[in-house]
């Protein structure tokens, strides 16, 4: 660990201690504790684990309507990029959607807010249509619904949404300069929580735009939505034959993943500094999808990046998450499955940020995607190391 950043950081802590109130002092103390932990890690941990799981960029990809077996049936020859993520990252083919809803917008809001759809802490966005004029996540729930974008943006970092269905305008509208929450954390970074919102039904153009934006000003948290398998599934059916349009759409997505991997590896700012989280909103069968069929509620969940070990996510999370086998556990189940709704808080953990305020999925016992260097309750080595690095946290 180089000296100058630590020194600069300590100087900032002194200012905080002298000039501001007890809340900030507590936070400064937490940071100082994190710094100590980071130093201990640098000294005592094996070199490869010196910053377990810590990254500066998270690319959260949701492949609309992707069934895990649409990948495994095609194999590495047809889907080299899916298989790169699978063989180099921590994955499961047995993650779960929301319990009550197996459709697009409710599950994406869950992915980005860490909330179930229904219940006391639910986000309550139950429709899958384009929002009506003026309608937002907050107006629907009757209270502010924070997202990963709030946490990242309030920390002074860049955020982006690249969506291939028009209904995602809901995100841009809910987190714009008028309807996003005031930033009361550290410097005021403004109310517009999404720095770049791009909507394009052509996913090739969308990914090109994403790559251009990342090359000019990389986002800390980017959400990329790829519609193709769902579109072909509704039109021609969720059929697992290699020649079928649905399977071809999955191959198209594989090529787009290749573009994203190229970007990550060839940009020195991103290489070795970027995690990819890939999941899906739902699967499907016949020409439809819902919440109560195993082929609909079973989704993949991949995590890839520096410090993320290879292997099965349930093995890495023994005692924290339970493999639901063929079942559909509710939110009251003691041992929760890995859900697509874990994406936001996992991404924030990888960035060293706290969970989304008001969220309940993947909060109290955050799932583990780094080697077992657990530093106690508040979590993760990743969080503490990043805290010491000086990322502002809430
Ligand atoms: Zn659909």
* Rg, Å, rounded: 20 Å
What do we call the CATH topology? Alkaline Phosphatase, subunit A
Arrangement of strands in the largest sheet: 4-3-5-1-6-7-2-8
Beta strands, count: 8
Which of globular, elongated, flat, extended, rod-shaped describes the shape? globular
Small molecules in complex: zinc ion
Fraction of residues in H or I helices: 25-40%
**How many distinct domains?**
1
Mind telling me the CATH superfamily name?
A: Alkaline Phosphatase, subunit A
**Which blocks of ≥5 consecutive residues have pLDDT under 50?**
1-24, 37-53, 373-394
Give helix and strand order, one letter per element, not per position: HHEHHHEHHHEHEHEHHEHEEHHH
What is the level 1 CATH name?
A: Alpha Beta
Strand-residue fraction? 5-15%
Structural class: alpha/beta
CATH architecture: 3-Layer(aba) Sandwich
Tally of alpha and pi helices: 16
- Characterize the biggest β-sheet: 8 strands, mixed
Overall residue-averaged pLDDT value: 85
Distance between the termini: 25 Å
Describe the structure.
The chain has helices at 3-19, 22-44, 68-72, 75-78, 80-88, 104-113, 137-141, 148-154, 169-174, 203-216, 228-236, 245-266, 294-297, 313-316, 343-351, 381-389, and strands at 57-63, 90-96, 159-163, 196-199, 221-226, 274-279, 298-304, 311-312. It has one domain (55-378): Alkaline Phosphatase, subunit A. An 8-stranded mixed β-sheet has the order 4-3-5-1-6-7-2-8, with helices on both faces. The protein is α/β, with parallel strands linked by helices and 394 residues long. The two termini are 25 Å apart. The structure holds zinc ion. The site of zinc ion has 5 residues, from helix 11.
């Amino acid at each position: 660990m180089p000296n100058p950043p630590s020194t600069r950081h300590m100087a900032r802590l002194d200012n905080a201690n002298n000039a501001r109130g007890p809340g900030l002092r507590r936070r400064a103390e937490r940071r100082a504790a994190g710094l100590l932990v980071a130093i201990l890690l640098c000294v005592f941990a094996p070199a490869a684990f010196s910053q377990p799981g810590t990254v500066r960029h998270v690319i959260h990809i949701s492949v609309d309507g992707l069934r895990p077996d649409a990948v495994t049936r095609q194999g590495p020859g047809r889907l080299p990029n899916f298989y790169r993520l699978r063989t180099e990252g921590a994955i499961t083919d047995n993650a779960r959607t929301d319990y009550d809803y197996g459709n697009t917008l409710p599950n994406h809001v869950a992915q980005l807010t860490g909330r179930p759809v229904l219940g006391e802490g639910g986000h309550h966005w139950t429709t899958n249509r384009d929002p009506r004029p003026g309608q937002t996540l907050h107006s629907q729930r009757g209270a502010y619904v924070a997202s990963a974008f709030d946490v990242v943006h309030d920390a002074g970092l860049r955020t982006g949404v690249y969506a291939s269905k028009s209904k995602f305008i809901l995100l841009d509208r809910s987190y714009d300069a008028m309807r996003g929450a005031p930033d009361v954390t550290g410097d005021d970074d403004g109310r517009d929580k999404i720095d770049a919102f791009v909507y394009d039904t052509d996913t090739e153009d969308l990914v090109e735009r994403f790559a251009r934006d990342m090359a000019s000003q990389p986002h800390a948290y980017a959400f990329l939505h790829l519609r193709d398998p769902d579109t072909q599934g509704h039109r021609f059916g969720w059929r697992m034959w290699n020649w079928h349009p649905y399977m071809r759409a999955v191959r198209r997505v594989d090529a787009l993943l290749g573009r994203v991997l190229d970007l990550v590896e060839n940009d020195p700012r991103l290489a070795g500094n970027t995690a990819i989280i890939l999941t899906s909103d739902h699967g499907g069968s016949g020409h439809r999808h819902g919440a109560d069929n195993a082929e609909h509620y079973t989704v993949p969940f991949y995590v890839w990046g520096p410090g993320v070990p290879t292997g099965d996510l349930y093995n890495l999370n023994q005692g924290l998450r339970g493999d639901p086998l063929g079942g559909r556990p509710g939110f009251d189940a003691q041992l929760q499955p890995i859900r697509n709704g874990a994406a936001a808080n996992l991404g924030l953990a990888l960035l060293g940020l706290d969970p989304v305020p008001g969220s309940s999925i993947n909060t109290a016992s955050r799932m583990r995607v780094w080697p077992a260097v657990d530093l106690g309750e508040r979590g993760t080595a990743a969080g503490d190391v990043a805290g010491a690095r000086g990322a502002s946290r809430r």
